Amino acid sequence: MQNKQPSQGSLGRFFSMLWKARLPYAWIAGYLVVSVLMTNVGISATEYTAQLYAGNVDFWGVVIPFLVVSLVSLVIGSVSGMISGICMARIDRNLRRAVWQKIVRLPFGYYQQNAPKELISRVTTDISTISALIMQVFLLALTSLYSTVRLFVQIRSYNSRLMVATLVLLPLQVVIGVLAGQLKFGLSDEVNRRTAELTEAVSERTGQAMLIKSFSAQKREEEAVGRRAKAFYRTSVLNAWVTNFVSPVYVLVGALQFIVIVMVGRGFYADGSITLAQWVAYFVFANQIINNLTAYTGYWTSLKSAQGATNRVAAVMAEPEEDRDAGEPVGTLQGDIVFDHLRFGYGETLLFDDLCLTIPQGRATAVIGPSGSGKTTLLNLVERLYPPPKPAPSASAGTTSAGFPSAATGRR
Questions:
Q1: Which among 91, 264, 309, 411 is least surrounded, fewest beta carbons within 10 Å?
Q2: What sign does the CA torsion over 89, 91, 94, 95 have?
Q3: Could you list the residue ranges that cross the membrane (predicted)?
């Protein structure tokens, strides 16, 4: 059975999927507003903290504002966390509902080409990956961008040359993040694929436990699931090795940048370009910028890691659905069931070639044959679970080209 491939690219299918899922845009907008507010309050709290470290303990001018801003920051942080949790839960719910509605509306031939058990992973694991991608990558990337720009503006208010010196520290983090993201993408996608295969194997055999025991096939089925579990184990271990190799590299780069930040700030403070309080604040702001940049490399890694899951779900959502309005309404069906020169196959495998068959009305007709001979397919064709395409102009009535389904069924 051949399906029409979606014409959209993977990125287009992904955003089309999000549009169909109807994300909680009001909650997402609220989360972004709260995040922006939290960034501004955090900058004010840092400046008051720097004043205290510099020895300015003015009670009304520094201490009281510091306590108020710190309390407001805690409240906003709690509100932000609550909204984030609600957003993720709603995104999960909407995506799962949209994907499940799509699955039950797909034509029967889709399940012939794709193992239905694998769809469990599409609705569970892959959806969780996408919701985490939206909340913990896309939205955090936006808020981190605003935070980074705001911090640079604040540093520039101290000294423009200090801002330029900070920019010089950034390229190394970008290079490391891109390389790590490319490496982890392939491994994470492989882990997701192995998870789907293991889930499919276990789900299928759990439902057939009595049949397995009846045929004394326990050993064979143990080995079949064991092979998938072993493949999943090997991929997971390799992914863990790569992850734990990349982490120390990040730590080393961060340590080097910490030293450079201290030395740069000390130089500007020594020549009187900035005050002591500004040096302390600059040290905090520069580290926040580095942390934001490090987070961006993590966002890139997460994006590449989740790309497989997003492509799989987006591909399901892009599949053409059954046309429920196709056909003509009929009353009570009467007469024989007739297959007239039927030609039908799955992909390149031809099952029926020029089949002519009449099933008389009012009589019991038995269809007998070995497994795989087409008995179930014949019933599916009668029920029109496989919709026939239009015959080619050169083909005779009731036939199509090889490899395409033709359900030339009817009643007379």
A1: 411
A2: negative
A3: 23-43, 63-87, 127-149, 161-183, 237-264, 276-296
**CATH code at 10-318:** 1.20.1560.10
39 confidence band (pLDDT: 50, 70, 90):
very high
What number of other Cβ atoms are within 10 A of residue 353's Cβ?
12
Per domain, the residue ranges of the chain are 10-318, 337-411
- What's the order of all strands across the beta sheet hosting 349-359? 349-359, 337-346, 409-411
Integer CA distances (angstroms), 28 to 24, 34, 147, 302, in order: 6, 10, 17, 20
Is there a contact between 224 and 201 (Cβ–Cβ < 8 Å)?
Answer: yes
| Residue keyed to tokens 């194997």 | 201
Provide the pLDDT confidence category of residue 167 given band limits of 50, 70 and 90. confident
- For 285, other C-beta atoms within 10 Å of its C-beta total 25
- Residue 304 near residue 180, CB atoms below 8 Å: no
> How many of the other CB atoms lie within 10 Å of CB of 111?
14
- pLDDT tens profile 120-162: 888 888 998 899 999 989 999 999 999 999 999 999 999 998 8
One-character DSSP codes across 318-368 = HSPPP-TT-S----S--S-EEEEEEEEEETTEEEEEEEEEEE-TTS-----
For the record, the structure tokens of 216 come out as 């004394």
**E strands, 44-187, where?**
none
- Other CB atoms within a 10 A radius of the CB of residue 358 amount to 12
**pTM score, whole prediction:** 0.68
Give just the sign of the alpha carbon dihedral 282, 286, 291, 292. Answer: positive
